[in-house]
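S1.2 Input.
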Amino acid sequence: MEKVRSTTVLGIVHNGQVALGADGQASMGATVAKNHVRKIRKMLDGKIVTGFAGSTADAFTLLERFEEKLNAYGGNMKRASIELAKDWRTDRYLRKLEAMMIVANKEELLIISGTGDVLEPENGIAAIGSGGNYALSAATALKKHAQHLSAEEMVKEGLTVAADICIYTNHNFIIEKPV
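S1.3 Output.
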């Protein structure tokens, strides 16, 4: 079975704004399987925005678990993220899931991985997926040299650079901001 490759997810905190976006491509081997995959989800009436990279079925399992953790911890995103990461690392079933997540609220971004990591990026930029490093590089330059742009504009431009370079990323973006 060919590995499903997908995605670039980019989140930015800039000038009191937070935006999270992703492209819409899923690829199987050298073939584009779908152009309009929705990799960004809102939770808690839009207060939390999540983005995922990796296997879609695995990501949905993690999104469901994350939502359960959010509800269990009163919407505390950081605590829910830490509890999910602990479960993901220690649970025999979850340990096999191949995905990563970025979660965001109005103040911060976190990257959650299956190795038990919950990372809060120092520079306010988080990127995952096949084109993540391209988007991260572009967003870092934009944040340093284009202060006048909004977080949403920086996410769009970072994703555009990734889509122009990475064959697993397309230009069908969905960008959301937490409320």
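S1.4 Remarks. The chain has one domain: 4-168.
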